[in-house]
Amino acid sequence: MTTRTRYFVIVSVLVLGVGLGTGLVAYYVGFPAGALGRQGGPEELAYVPRDAAAIAFANVHEIMTSELRQKLHRALPMQENGQQELQNQTGINLETDVDRVVACLYPDRDGTNTPGAGMVLARGRFDEVKIEALMRDHGAHVENYNGKRLIVADPKDLVDAGAGDIAAHGHSASLSLSFIEPGLAAIGSTKLIRSAVDLHRAGNNPRTGLESVTGNDALMNLVREMDSGNVWAVGRFDALTAHTRLPEAISSRLPAITWFSASGHINGGIRGVVRAEARDDEAATNLRDVVRGFLALAKMSAGSRPELQLMMQSLELGGTGRTVALSFSVPAEVFDVIGAVTNKGFKPAH
Questions:
Q1: Global confidence as pTM
Q2: SS3 string of the chain?
Q3: What is the pLDDT of residues 154-172, one digit of tens each?
């Protein structure tokens, strides 16, 4: 695995953990942190354009310092060479420098049948000079836009610098990074980064068409329901399926779903809820039947495995009307069992 690929994987894992596993934004840098805004959701949403299809959030600092993360760190035979390499190359220590991350996903705006565009807003402590130098070493160049420096990596630049593994994954549009304000890095589609700079410079102005997602009531209502968790994701269901590419055998059997939301709190264990809003009451009833069937099959598959039985016992189906909800609470004991089972079968390499 090349150094460039490892950077891509490290950052993609963070976004995947939030629920937007697109890997479309993270090539160069680690991420985020901050406090919750008064209108619901993190304050960085003020820099997210209104027409987002999905938004995700993770309090990286809380997760990295949680009891669960420390337990897994001790119990599972994982090496963190990638994390150390990221620190060596960019000066970013995921343990201490990152507070939180906000990610957003957009549908294809240009009719090019591409997977769409994304952006990550990361608040933390960054060595801006070192990060810019690293990106320029990888073929990026610097542009000025409305008083901000944009570090832009065009697909041709990436190929010329030997980073063809990124360009080959469908990144036909340029990627950019800009430090919107001290301690706040934005990285993703160049068009979205420019929009974030515009919102930072001029603020919300619906009369001119410049408006953040905080004015999108449909999404913000979901955000306000979810933001008690330290990791959550909300958005249109078609945005989720477009990027996860569900197998035809599954997608063809799913009832019509309009919105999805998921929220979790990670500390000693994990507790959370996944919700889906169906198109109508009939679709919601059909979806509940599908979920019940899945739960019955999963409980049968758990057999005598204690770690799976504990997880299955925590699942609870709920919701009313067009809303279907699946809540769960995975206690710390589950991860003790998983760690014991994993270590029992792990043989250190010689």
A1: 0.75
A2: CCHHHHHHHHHHHHHHHHCCCCCCCCCCCCCCCCCECCCCCEHHHHHCECCCCEEEEECHHHHHCCHHHHHHHHHCCCCCHHHHHHHHHHCCCCCCCEEEEEEEEECCCCCCCCCCEEEEEEEECCCHHHHHHHHHHCCCEEEEECCEEEEEECHHHHHHCCCHHHHCCCCCCCEEEEEEECCEEEEEEHHHHHHHHHHHHHCCEHHHCECEHHHCHHHHHHHHHHCCCCEEEEEEHHHHHHHHCCCHHHHCCCCCEEEEEEEEEECCCEEEEEEEEECCHHHHHHHHHHHHHHHHHHHHHHCCCHHHHHHHHHCEEECCCCEEEEEEEECHHHHHHHHHHHHHHCCCCC
A3: 866 544 544 444 444 444 5
Nearest to 95 by CA among 116, 125, 118: 125
Structure tokens at 201: 């410079």
Evaluate whether 131 touches 177 at the Cβ level (below 8 Å). yes
How far apart (Å, rounded) are the C-alpha atoms in residues 58 and 232?
7
CA separation for the pair 46, 220 (Å, rounded) = 12
CB 258 within 8 A of CB 74: no
Counting as low any pLDDT under 50, the low residues of the chain are 1-38, 111-114, 158-159, 161-171, 346-350
List CB contacts of 152: < 8 A, sequence separation 6 or more: 140, 141, 142, 143, 174, 175, 176, 190
Residues 257, 237 contacting (CB under 8 angstroms) = yes
Q: Tens digits of per-residue pLDDT, 275-302? A: 999 999 999 999 999 888 888 888 787 7
